[in-house]
Write a structure and sequence with these properties.
The chain is of the alpha/beta class. The chain is built from seven helices and seven strands.
């Protein structure tokens, strides 16, 4: 599910598209010559582009992590394309640890298709990390599904920033393997940011199914 930051980016994009369509309709309806119409259209497109750019830059600045650990993870993620396989596995493991989960590195020769085992609470999740230049195919889904059985995990995930092929998506749906891409990683970094902010004010957030949930004013008092 997209967070508020992602929804805001969508609003900026679709708002710009709508503005361009409205501009085209208005120019087409005006009784002006071709030259004047093109001049008005160019001026309008320039205005829409400027507003959309300012909104995009503002969203990027607003959505950037502000706490030290989250900022460091975001910096490392910006360099993900330059990471080798082992480096990416370490990065993902560090990200899960920063979210407060127990992590076991199992990657290497004979890992049975599982690079990391994550234990958020009572759950045990087998994770395969794929840092490829192209979308990942269904082989990774097959491997982590089998590896999860081998390591007695209740869930199986694949983490691949570049996304997945149609075959991988179809197989994951039938095997209930969860596929995570760059968007998932950004959301996890956002959770680390939220967790650090809660720690800074001395109120540790609760977790539900491994997802950080800040305290709510309607929650019952503890103690």
């Amino acid at each position: 599910m997209a967070g508020p930051g992602r929804r805001l980016a969508d609003v900026i994009f679709y708002g710009a598209v709508l503005a361009v369509l409205v501009l085209l309709v208005l120019v087409a309806r005006r009784d002006v010559g071709l030259t004047e119409g093109l001049r008005e259209l160019c001026a309008g497109l320039l205005l829409v582009g400027t507003v959309a750019t300012v909104g995009w830059v503002g969203w990027r600045l607003w959505s950037r992590p502000r706490t030290p650990t989250a900022r460091e993870l975001a910096r490392r993620f910006e360099e993900v394309r330059f990471m080798g396989g082992t480096q990416f596995e370490v990065f993902v493991a560090d990200l899960f640890r920063a979210m407060g989960h127990q992590v076991l590195m199992s990657g290497g020769v004979g890992d049975q298709g599982v690079d990391i085992i994550v234990e958020p609470g009572s759950r045990r999740i087998a994770v395969q990390c794929k840092n490829h230049l192209r979308p990942v195919g269904n082989k990774a889904v097959q491997e982590v599904y089998a590896g999860a059985k081998h390591y007695r995990c209740s869930e199986a995930w694949v983490v691949a920033p570049t996304g997945y092929t149609r075959g991988a998506l179809e197989l994951a749906e039938s095997t209930r393997v969860l596929l995570h891409d760059a968007g998932s990683i950004r959301r996890w970094i956002g959770k680390v940011d939220a967790l650090e902010k809660e720690r800074a004010i001395g109120t540790p957030p609760e977790t539900v199914n491994g997802v950080i949930r800040p305290p709510h004013h309607d929650d019952p008092q503890k103690g």
